[in-house]
Amino acid sequence: MNSIVEKPWGSFEILSFGRKFLLKKIIVKPGGVLSLQSHQHRSEHWIVAEGEAEVTINDKVLKLKENENIFIAKGSIHRMANHGHNNLVIIELWYGDELDENDIKRYEDIYNRIK
């Protein structure tokens, strides 16, 4: 269960899961930017454990520091980025009826993963 999955922006590790939730540790390397995306079947909660995150939700851009958190409602267009010099560590909780990577609709992606 605790295997690390490498991504172009960093990595993630699944820490725990249940019928309607999935808990992940996300590491975003310096300069890493996740795709601008939305989810139809889940909401997300992000907690910054280390570093500073630039978070986009719909038309707002926010800075989150260590020990700050944010809720991403189902259907919201969102992304996180690490513009710092050290790794960004996020604890992410998914909650919903469908908890897999197929529930991603990408709008922008610097790694060319839009289908």
Characterization of this structure:
- The protein has a six-stranded antiparallel sheet, with no helix packed on it.
- It is an all-beta fold.
- It is globular and about 35 Å long.
- The model has no long low-confidence stretch (mean pLDDT 95).
- It has one domain: Jelly Rolls (Sandwich).
Key phrases:
mainly beta; single chain; 0% helix; 11 strands; globular; Jelly Rolls; 115 residues
Mean pLDDT: 95
| Total DSSP helices | 0
User: What is the CATH domain class?
Assistant: Mainly Beta
* Number of E-type strands: 11
- Give the strand line-up of the largest sheet: 1-2-3-10-5-8
Q: Which topology does CATH recognise? A: Jelly Rolls
Q: Write the H/E string, N to C.
A: EEEEEEEEEEE
Largest sheet: 6 strands, antiparallel
User: How many domains would you count in the coordinates?
Assistant: 1
Q: Say which CATH homologous superfamily is assigned.
A: Jelly Rolls
Low-confidence stretches: none
Q: Determine the N-to-C terminus distance.
A: 28 Å
Structural class comes to mainly beta
Give me the Rg, rounded: 13 Å
Beta-strand portion reads over 45%
CATH architecture: Sandwich
Q: Helical content, roughly?
A: under 10%
Which of globular, elongated, flat, extended, rod-shaped describes the shape?
globular
Can you describe this structure in just a few lines?
This protein has 115 residues and is mainly beta. It has strands spanning 4-7, 10-17, 21-28, 36-38, 42-50, 53-57, 60-64, 69-72, 78-81, 88-96, 105-108.
